[in-house]
Description:
Elements: H1 2-27, H2 32-59, H3 64-67, H4 78-87, H5 91-96, H6 99-106, H7 109-114
Amino acid sequence: xxxIQLRVLRAKIRGFQAAGESIHHRxxxxxxxxxxFLWHEKxxxxxxxxxxxxxxxxxxxxxxxxxxxxxxxxRPNTARVHELMVAHLPxxxxxxxxxxxxxALLEPTEKRLEK
Length: 115
């Protein structure tokens, strides 16, 4: 069951990537307010995609540091990543996953080892 859920999540990620590419091509053909609107939409899709990619990687057991390297000011939204992970886990496992557990997964390894 978990494999099917991961396939669904991977399909959503591919959909976001395709949408971003489509908007990218449209941006170069427009100007003015429409261009600004398309850039805003592309950034939003990029943020959604980032959250989905992080959730996908964590569900596969990949350490957060291997998924992305970002500054402490650019941390992912823990609640949103938790929500995505719960939505893509089978019911017994998904209901047990706590926000604190996701927060711990998103902390740098050094901080986890200190605790």
